[in-house]
Structures are given as C-alpha cells and as structure tokens.
C-alpha cells in the first residue's frame, strides 16, 4: 500500500502542508485500522462508509489504497466536488457519493455492510449524537471499526482565552454544549470522556483516543510557513502529544477509534 504522505498528495520528504498538519494524526490511525482489518478479514479491498464525508478529504485517500468507499453527505455541492476529486485521483470506480445524513442513514446505506465507518465532524451538528453513533455502529460488520472525530471543548475554551475573549471562554466552559455564545458556529463540542462514552454506550470497545490539532491551530501560520523545519517539527510534536491524555483536554478535535465485537 502507498505511503500515507503520498496518498495525501505530497512526498514524504517535502514540507507538510497546513492541511496535512490538521489531518495527519487521524490519517495515521485510520490507515492502521484499515490495515488491521485487511489482515483480520483476508480481504485486500474493504467496504468503507464515510458519513458526512463531503468532498472526500478522507474518502479519496482511502480509495487510493484500493478500498471501496461510499460517502453519505447532505450537500449536493460537496458530492459534486467529491465526484470531480475522485475522477482526478483515478478512483472514480471506487468512490460512490449519495445524498443523505446519519439520521436517515439506512435510507441510502446498508445495515451491517461495512468494514470501517468514518463519522468525522458530524456529531457536532446532529440533534441526537447518541442516535448518530448507534446508526454508524449498525452499519458495521462484526469486528469492524468506527473512526469518530468531534470538536473538542477544551480547545475552544483555550482558543477564546488566548484571543482575549475571556467571557466567551468561560461561557464555553460552563455551557452544556460547549458553545461560547450565540455567534458560535459550532452547535456542540465534546470532551474525550463524552465521545468515548457515546461509543461504549453503542456497544463498541474503544481502541484508541487521540487529540487532534493540539498545537496546529495555536501556532502563528507565518512561523510554520517561514521558519526552516518548523512544519516538520510541528507535525512530529502533534503526533507525539496526540496519545497523551493530558493534551486531550486542549485539543481542537478529538478522535476515537472503536471496534465492534465479533
């Protein structure tokens, strides 16, 4: 299988892009889960479901590994961009986009038909996150894996405080949904305990928890873009801190990998 850096469109020796700094941790965990599933099933090509997958930020790289990916997204524009992106990557035959959402998932997807399900940036926007997780779990085959990515509460509190918006930071800290005010574009944020709780309540076993964008959103872009070696060093720092529970509390996003019993 290709090196993940090449899958994301850059050579391993080149400087990481700002986008890769934000996705590298999740991609590494996801690729490892895909590889393990290939090993456990003996199948080289898996069936992957990407709920809320949009224009294919993860779906297209997964397809480039040789897996079949179904993307469910409510936006026709995003699905059009997905189709174009898959064609440009030469994986149009492996990527299928369908309009829908996680609440009505089985109007457009099959139950128990997928080896891996991605649910990235979805639970923040649904009325019932627990229902959303239950639906993704129902889509998994026994032994399948769920990749769950949600907005982190602590990262938002820290960002507002560092921007000098102390009242908003305190509001987010106290708000049940982690919102800093009426103008907050994110309807809901999570702690690591809340995300893992949703997975466990749906019958999954949590395999790993990672903090995502712990530092990348806080470091000035000009420093990363102009200081020699800064991007590479930041990428390594993100990877090193991602598994440490102490840093989950300040991550912009939280990633949970969980597995369905066989």
TrEMBL record:
<dbReference type="InterPro" id="IPR029063">
    <property type="entry name" value="SAM-dependent_MTases_sf"/>
</dbReference>
<dbReference type="Pfam" id="PF08242">
    <property type="entry name" value="Methyltransf_12"/>
</dbReference>
<feature type="domain" description="Methyltransferase type 12">
    <location>
        <begin position="49"/>
        <end position="146"/>
    </location>
</feature>
<dbReference type="GO" id="GO:0008168">
    <property type="term" value="F:methyltransferase activity"/>
</dbReference>
<dbReference type="GO" id="GO:0032259">
    <property type="term" value="P:methylation"/>
</dbReference>
<keyword id="KW-0808">Transferase</keyword>
<dbReference type="InterPro" id="IPR013217">
    <property type="entry name" value="Methyltransf_12"/>
</dbReference>
<keyword id="KW-0949">S-adenosyl-L-methionine</keyword>
<protein>
    <submittedName>
        <fullName>Methyltransferase</fullName>
    </submittedName>
</protein>
<keyword id="KW-0489">Methyltransferase</keyword>
